[in-house]
Amino acid sequence: MPSGRSGRPGRDFARTKEELAALLGPLLVAPDAVEAAREAHRRLAALDPPLRYRSVRLVLAGLPVEDEERARALARVLVRTGTGHLAVCTGLALLTRLGEPQDVPYLRTLGLLRTLARPVIHALDAIDRPAAAELELRGHEGAPVFRPLLAAVASGDRAAVRECLVALPGDLAPEAARRVAEAARLAELMVAVNGPVAVAGPDAGLVACAGRLLFRMTSQRDYRPEILSYPDAPYLYEAFARGAALLAPTLDHHALLLSAAQELRTGPAMLHDWGPGRREAALAELTAVLERPEWRAFPAYEGEETGVRRRLAWVRRTRAQVLRAPYGPAPTASPSGLSRLAIGICERDPDDPDTVEVRVLVDGLPVVPAYFGRGPANSPERLLDTGALWATGEPREVQLAEAYCTEGCCGALYVTVRRDGDQVVWSGWRSPVPPGGTRELPELRFEAAAYDAEVARARDDDSWMWPARRTARLIAAGLRERPDLLARWHVRFDWATTTFRDSDETLISLVYDADDGSVRQLLWRIAEDGTPPEDRAAAALRRPLTEDPRGYGR
Question: Which of 101-115, 315-329, 405-419 has the lowest mean pLDDT?
């Protein structure tokens, strides 16, 4: 039996599910909710080892409820009169499924108790998301930053809410950004209609604020992008796209428009229920603004400060990608019934850097956030430069993504790629499964000719690269073509990329066997010196001819 942190025996989830179903099942249909609540208190208190709230919530989320009225009545008695923490949490978990607007005042009051705040937020999320967001922000580590906004929301003063939104810092954490948008009912503010009476429409400050919050929500440093937990995302993207013309063509605003366009073309935001043509229309409005003459002329920045220089270069590269035709074929299945593959490469705004990822779309939907959602997809160097996605008659398992923490912590997404006649098959998926859940991922089949063409196009597309990254690719290609350069020194090539903290620095990983039998890693750093990447790579590849690579770096 698993052991808990206290050293007491833990619980197997399957056993927990069975035990809780037997314990609560009869009580959910009991005609007397008060008596059922007393019995629930007694039974839950007698459990040994005791249950955790998370287990209760997961079990109750999938427990069949035959009589919703009676189950709801039990939940309300537990929540309003409960005296035990687990019993109250059980009522809250039931209200997550069965709650109604009349429950919100009670939940708001319970949420003032710190030990119940999280279960209350879960319940409110299902009934009144703005109320849940307010409670979340009040208990947030940066709560003082949100006090003026929360006071404005409580007063109902829409003008004050706008002012507070615009005054918020631009570097909010992803979840905080989502909660701000929810608490302020930002999508409604952007639409700017109050019943039949139109109110002042969004100004440039509010439009920019909406763009910043959407951008923060798309970060994958919280594993699952917060944008997927924001049901109003399509409405806010549409409102942002309609208001984009109000923005001046500054560097910050360029970055906001391009980041939104990236997400609408290949990002997790595509997974929302957009309805016919809405996402495409929002993307068209953004690109129409970017096509305007005043947006084509980049402002001059004196001094060429490093951060500004990198961001300007990113704007130019990303603009060229966004304004060209969409990646790959149309986002529908082919006439033959086979799936269609499209591949995009996404580099995030350097103002909030993240890894460069290969965004794989199948029939128009991004695979990694749909099937995994615990981190970004792997890099072009890993999926394209190594030929990992090429299909042969020999099945090969390919890692498409790894959890933001590490695979050893929260897993990775794998698929087996093989060629079957004139088709390419993706099957044998491996992905983490939530406790008590099942996950059957589909077998995907592609026309081999179209598949090969798309993989080759993505591999050969270097428009996303900056000089240091191009240097890394050239060095990696040279070392793969001539393994003898390192083999003579008993050293092996591992990978090549740029450093996260300094994207102008090329980083090469080499490995070798030490005398003590361990495997040592050597990090070889190559600084930006203004020379063309081809020259820098050629110089790097000449070094092993006369110099032991084990002396190159740390």
Answer: 315-329
pLDDT band at 352 (very low <50, low <70, confident <90, very high): confident
CB 210 within 8 A of CB 239: yes
The span from the CA of 245 to the CA of 213, in Å, is 18
pLDDT higher than threshold 90 for residue 237: yes
Interatomic CA distance for residues 231 and 125, integer angstroms: 11
Kindly give, in sequence order, each residue whose CB lies less than 8 Å from that of residue 21, ignoring residues fewer than 6 positions away.
Answer: 59, 63
70 Cβ partners below 8 Å, 6+ apart? 28, 29, 30, 31, 33
Q: How do residues 257-282 score in pLDDT, each as one tens digit?
A: 999 999 999 999 999 999 999 999 99
In sequence order, the 6+-apart residues with CB closer than 8 A to the CB of 499 are 505, 507, 525
Helix residue ranges per DSSP H, 102-245: 104-110, 117-127, 129-138, 143-155, 158-167, 174-183, 186-191, 204-217, 233-243
What is the Cα–Cα distance from 484 to 545, expressed in whole angstroms?
Answer: 10
Helix, strand, coil distribution of the chain in percent, nearest 5: 55, 15, 35
